[in-house]
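Q: What does the assembled structure look like for these inputs?
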Amino acid sequence: GAGVSQSPSNKVTEKGKDVELRCDPISGHTALYWYRQSLGQGLEFLIYFQGNSAPDKSGLPSDRFSAERTGGSVSTLTIQRTQQEDSAVYLCASRQGLRTYNEQFFGPGTRLTVL
Amino acid sequence: GEDVEQSLFLSVREGDSSVINCTYTDSSSTYLYWYKQEPGAGLQLLTYIFSNMDMKQDQRLTVLLNKKDKHLSLRIADTQTGDSAIYFCAESSGYSTLTFGKGTMLLVSP
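A:
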């Protein structure tokens, strides 16, 4: 079956603009995660959804970042008033909720460049 | 908070064994994972180990866990050029999030 997909694959934007990044998880996966991967910083957790609710959003770096998930499926990460330090690869992952271990399936990521 | 540390770079020759090391701080970790990231791709789970195990072998991969020292290693036998990638160590203590290390870039030369 299809894996996790993300769109767009690349996004170039100007400082100050808003961007929306989309994630389509594997069908039936109840948990969804957003991470940010930037050079020298490794993989940084942003937010976790279980169904449509977000029990852990502790990793969102500022109030310019928000995310939502609808229908227990697609999720959108929104960055308002983008800054150059937001440039990174944004990765989405999903997990089947009933597994006892935390295997997350990752999408290919969206590379965001803020000029 | 939880922290996962790993060396940033490892270079080996084709056919040699590779050993990638990782240390973690969260004593309540229940599962530890190794993920692989090839260029331009997302992360792919390679293997995982439950915290009450010392060792797990899966074909060319051997995972060793020293829970007392909070040290995890991944050994790749007969390393091939196709094994060149970034390898991430990660830990979890429940059903929610994973904490990742910064990744070790493995370069395999012919």
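Chain B has a mean pLDDT of 91.
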